[in-house]
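Notebook, bench 3.
Goal today: get a predicted structure for Cytochrome b561 from Pseudidiomarina indica so we can plan the truncation constructs. The sequence was checked against the plasmid map this morning, with no discrepancies at the termini. Length recorded as 173 residues. Pasting the sequence as submitted so the record is complete.
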Amino acid sequence: MINDQQHQYGAVSRFFHWFTAILVLWQFAKFFDRINDGEHWVGETLVPYHINIGAFLLVLVIARMIWAFTQLNQRPVNPQAANLWSKLGHISLYGLLTVMPLLGICKMVGNGYGLKVFGCQLVERGAEIAWMAQLGELHSPVAWLLLLAIVGHIVMAVKHHLCGDKQLLRSMV
């Protein structure tokens, strides 16, 4: 089952969800880069891919939003989870997952580092662009906000599962 259905998300939606989750988890390894100036296994092994994965996540999240829009009328409907707070939470997650890489790009380009993704120089090194650098400074605080939103997402999924709606969590697993 590739497409979403009323009782379960399809393979494509589940792939987008879990692949995004894995990549975002990898991105949060950057927090460990602040320990001992990144001179440890995490800092030397995972963190060097931060920019590449961030750029890939931007493309992945946009593709995921397009897919979700095409599946809108067939997605599982849960009356308990279909309230305003749930919708705002999901919109916030999509928004933060889109804004994070854009702020990272602003940080890199604004500080004159240019932008190199998967070995391709997309933006050459150059002069600093003050407004972009300033906007890019929001990358780290927004990462903390994204982390809070993800924790909230997980807590609410588990809460719904434990409080009687066993199908909600199962529909994405």
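Helices lie at 11-27, 41-45, 50-70, 84-110, 130-136, 139-162, 166-170. Strands lie at 115-117, 120-123.
Flagging this for group meeting.
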